[in-house]
Each structure stands twice: as C-alpha cells, then as structure tokens.
Automatic annotation (TrEMBL):
Origin: domain of life: Bacteria
Keywords: 4Fe-4S, DNA damage, DNA repair, Hydrolase, Iron, Iron-sulfur, Membrane, Metal-binding, Transmembrane, Transmembrane helix
CDD domains named in the record: UDG-F5_TTUDGB_like
GO biological process per UniProt: base-excision repair
Residue stretches spanning the membrane: 172-195
Protein name according to UniProt: Type-5 uracil-DNA glycosylase
Uracil-DNA glycosylase-like domain: residues covered: 69-244
Gene source species: Klenkia marina
PANTHER family attached to this UniProt entry: TYPE-5 URACIL-DNA GLYCOSYLASE
Entry similarity comment: Belongs to the uracil-DNA glycosylase (UDG) superfamily. Type 5 (UDGb) family.
GO molecular function: 4 iron, 4 sulfur cluster binding; DNA-deoxyinosine glycosylase activity; metal ion binding; uracil DNA N-glycosylase activity
Length: 253
C-alpha cells in the first residue's frame, strides 16, 4: 500500500476502502488507514480547501485537513456514533469532536457520565482521555454544508464496520442524529445483527435491542449535538445526560 508524504497509507477508491478496512488487524491500523483515505474526491477537495483558506480566528494554526479517526480504547463497551467532522473543528484539530461547540457538548456530557477525564476538548495535546467508550463518525471527512452524500456515507461505511468489529466488549451504541442512525443500521445488518422489520426509526430516546453474532447490542438514539439543536433547545444537557446515563447502565448490566 502506497504512503503519502506524512507516512499514511493511501486509499483512493471505494474498493480500496473495503480491502483496507477488512485487512486492518487492530484499531491503530484502522486509524492509520483512515487518515490516508482519499476515496471521495468531493470531500478531499473540500477538507483541503478549508485547511488552506482557514477561518480568520484560526489563521495562524496549521489545519489537520485529513479524515478524522475514532477515539477511545479497544475494550470500550459503549460506542458514540456521530455524523462527520466539522470543517473548523475536527478538520482543524485532527481529533473527533474537538475544537467546536459540538465537542463542548459531547465531551462535557461524557465527563458528567464518568466516561472522560475532563469536560473540555480543544486540541489533540490537551490531556483528554476517554474510557469505556469509543467515539466514531459515519463519515470521516468534513463535508460541505455538513451534508455528506449517500454515496460518501456508503464509501466510508467499511471503516465504521471494521472499527465496531474490533470492539469485542461492545454492548451499547449511542447514535447522534438521523444520519448516523441510517448509516449504522446497514453496517450492523451486514455484520449479522438481526434488525426488526420495519427497521426502527430514529428518535431521541429511542432504544432498540438487537441480537448479533457476538451477543446483544442496544441502540440508543439522541439528537445530534449540533448548534442547530443545542442553541434552539431541541437538545438540552439533561436530555443528553439521560441518554448517556442509560448507556452506562446498560453497559454495566
């Protein structure tokens, strides 16, 4: 596998994503291959343009400008599945949900739930650690207008599938928003989980228990921690806390 100037293995096609994901032996390998992915031309062009033009407030910073890997240990019993990185958040800092208002919300909530060692996430070297939770996104590159296409979602899905396969203790998936929900269900179906018919619809507080090849998995729906939801009060801190507290209780049980 060819490597780019920074040493990351380069993947240029959807078929290459499938091969690269399937052959990744551990989460570190998945993370490394995600960072070198160039399989979606529109997303590559956008993330790199943003990294070059920058926002005025960050004009002195070097943007990451790559896909964003997941965060969290391999023994996690809880997964948090988001939509995609923010153009001036993860795409700038190089860490998922880091450097933007959405990250302020999710990491503060994880801290209150006992899943993070601090409530803030501003940079990759800020000392943040999470435990018993793996944080991932359905699409790994920042998309224009925060809106990946279905094709981009599907191209990225093997990374998500392999990441979940490499979490042997996984028991709960907290899904932030309808896009992540629609991306996760086919991944789980392909992995052998039995989905109800009709397929469960997304909603805040929705709870669905699935049976899979490695045991049960409970899906918990939550409105996304986007500013559109948090600024308007559609999602409040107590609402988000309740979902994460339920996740912790299910994982412990």
């Amino acid at each position: 596998m060819a490597r780019d100037a920074d040493g990351y293995p380069v993947t240029r096609t959807p078929a290459g994503v499938v091969r690269g994901a399937r052959s990744a032996r551990d989460l570190a390998a998945v993370d490394e291959r995600v960072c070198g992915c160039r399989a979606c031309p529109r997303l590559v062009a956008w993330r790199e343009e943003v990294a070059e033009v920058k926002r005025a407030a960050f004009r002195d910073q070097v943007y990451w400008g790559r896909p964003i890997p997941g965060m969290g240990p391999a023994d996690a019993r809880i997964a948090v599945v988001g939509l995609a990185p923010a153009a001036h958040g993860g795409n700038r800092t190089g860490r998922i949900f880091t450097g933007d208002r959405s990250g302020d919300w999710i990491f503060a909530a994880l801290w209150r739930a006992g899943l993070a060692n601090q409530p803030t996430s501003v940079s990759r070297d800020d000392g943040l650690e999470v435990h018993d939770v793996r944080i991932v996104s359905a699409v790994r590159c920042a998309p224009p207008d925060n809106a990946p296409t279905p094709a981009e979602r599907d191209t990225c899905s093997p990374w998500l599938a392999r990441e979940l396969q490499l979490l042997p203790r996984l028991r709960v998936a907290v899904v932030l928003g309808g896009f992540g929900w629609s991306a996760l269900l086919p991944v789980l179906a392909a992995a052998g989980y039995v989905l109800p018919r009709p397929r469960p619809r997304f909603g805040h507080g929705v709870e669905v228990e699935l049976v899979g090849p490695d045991g049960p998995l409970t899906l918990l729906g939550s409105y996304h921690v986007s500013q559109q939801n948090t600024f308007t009060g559609r999602l409040t801190e107590p609402m988000l806390d309740a979902v994460l507290q339920r996740a912790v209780a299910l994982a412990a049980g």
